[in-house]
Amino acid sequence: LSRVVSVYCRCLAWCWLSDAGRETCVYPLPEPQDLFQASQMKFEDFQRDLRKLRKDLNACSTEMGKVCKLSSEENLQPFKDKMYTFLSQAKTELETQEKQLEETQKIFLELSVSFSVKPKAGEKEVSPNTFFSIWHEFSTDFKDHWKKQNKLMLQERVKMAEDCFKQAREKASYSVKPKHATGIVRLCTFFYHS
């Protein structure tokens, strides 16, 4: 894994849009704690919660019907219209949530098949715990190696910058050479030494 991370970071460093080896570099995978939280989810819990909401919505609708039946026409409005609007909106949102959960579960199962993850013994389908626990471990190890590699690349960049600065400073420094006498100074020097 260390070699994979090293090659990955080095390849990114060649990309001029990349922040690899810089302090602003962002971890490229999902955070390990996010994967851990995902591993704790259970589709059955969400389904149970939606069934409870459906039951509560039906009970609310029944109660609204009783109130409307027992109330006089003059006291019925605006309660009836507002409750009817509320219940129809709640029913629509609940149906949307149920469809999204069903679709999410279907996509999750397809994803687990594409990664060849098999259910644990006693499970009929791959659970989020099984799938995301594997990814949590991988992401944790990858992040450790990624931090080390990124730090190493940052140190290399700093050293390269220092070397470039040092070379530029050496080139910029000038040496003072004694000037050879010319003209009248040369003649005076010539006669003086003679």
UniProtKB/TrEMBL annotation:
Checking SUPFAM superfamilies in the record gives:
Formin homology 2 domain (FH2 domain)
Stretches assigned to the FH2 domain: 31-143
Q: Where is the signal peptide?
A: none
Coiled-coil positions are 43-107
Give any GO molecular function from the UniProt entry: actin filament binding
Question: What's one GO-annotated cellular component?
Answer: cytoplasm
Q: Output the GO biological process annotations, alphabetical, semicolon-separated.
A: actin nucleation; cortical actin cytoskeleton organization
Question: What are the record keywords, sorted?
Answer: Coiled coil
In the UniProt record, does the keyword Signal occur?
A: no
For the keyword Coiled coil, the answer is yes
One short Pfam family name for this protein? FH2
Tell me the protein family, please.
Belongs to the formin homology family. Cappuccino subfamily.
By what name is this protein known? Formin 2
Q: Which organism is it from?
A: Seriola lalandi dorsalis
Read off the lineage from the record: Eukaryota, Metazoa, Chordata, Craniata, Vertebrata
